[in-house]
Fold this sequence. Notes:
This protein is of the alpha/beta class. It folds into two domains: about 5-180 and about 215-245, Rossmann fold (3-Layer(aba) Sandwich); about 185-215 and about 250-280 and about 300-320, Alpha-Beta Complex (UDP-galactose 4-epimerase, domain 1). The chain is built from eleven helices and 13 strands. It has helices at about 10-25, 40-45, 60-70, 85-90, 90-110, 145-165, 190-200, 220-235, 255-265, 290-295, 305-320, and strands spanning about 5, 25-30, 50-55, 75, 120-125, 170-175, 175-180, 205, 210-215, 215, 240-245, 250, 270-275. The protein has a seven-stranded parallel sheet with strand order 3-2-1-4-5-6-11, sandwiched between helices. A two-stranded parallel ribbon has the order 7-10. Helix 7 packs parallel to helix 9, helix 7 (about 190-200) crosses helix 11 (about 305-320) and helix 9 packs across helix 11. The radius of gyration is 19 Å and the shape is globular. It starts with a strand and ends with a helix.
Amino acid sequence: MTTALVTGATGMVGSALVRRLVDDGVDVVALVLDTDPQSELYRSGLVNSTTVVNGGLEDLPCLERAIALHEPDTVYHLGAQTIVGAAHRAPVATLEANVRGTWNVLEAARRHPDVVQAIVIASSDKAYGTTDELPYTEAHALGGTEPYEVSKAAADLIAQMYAHAYGVPLAIARCGNIFGPGDLNWSRIVPGTIRSLLRDQQPVLRSDGTFVRDYLHVDDVVTAYTSLAAALEDGSIATGEGWNFSDESPRTVMEIYEATCRAVGMPGVAPLVLDRAPGEIHDQWLSSAKARERLGWTTAVGLEDGLHTTVAWYRSFLAS
């Protein structure tokens, strides 16, 4: 890999991925819709080590220009509308970003097969929809009934179409809940709880606290994405496959809340439980057996250590 195009570069995972790629000597082209000075990409000055292309996922000519002009051999497609509640409130905008955005990225790559050698699609466990058979494996059918779930399942199917009908070299990464430094979506349990505690406010749980999820540190997610890109480039995996990534230790929202409180040093603080989580699947977790066996991928950051470094980042961020 010499040059990589990263969509969603201002997000938590996007910023962490850009940092990893820059540190590895890769030339990074970052697709940026809006300049956000609070994003870690800008706040850290990391953006100065990239080439920025301003535009949206809905703009196919912009994406094709980015590939034709900057010649990335690898594309990491992380850009999306990622909030389940926002998808429920605004389904059309979510479908435009997540579904049209994905086919635009893949169509732009299809038109330049001499340039793009590997594409990693950042998907989600939500693409599987609701099932009584857990953990999810890659053999589970894709599904969904809510806007966010359907947007991710549709994007996954479109990616598989481009792989099998046109030979576009791609892999689909499905992760659970991701946490770590740089997440500015305060409705999520980890950043929202940390901010409330550091501001001496009562933290809020949107659900009743019993919902079960995987929680994976952002550094492990970045390793998952780069491992997939490397495997595509060396031909050790076929195009179009889905891959699950998880620490395989599902926890309830309340367990994550309590662990976050401990990491902040404020155990025992009672949250305000709203018990309102429209559009959320109650229980979801993934099997990573395929990634372990075929990619050699395992988690490197445990929950407790990951939360402590995350809290330290937010202490600095909120004090600035």
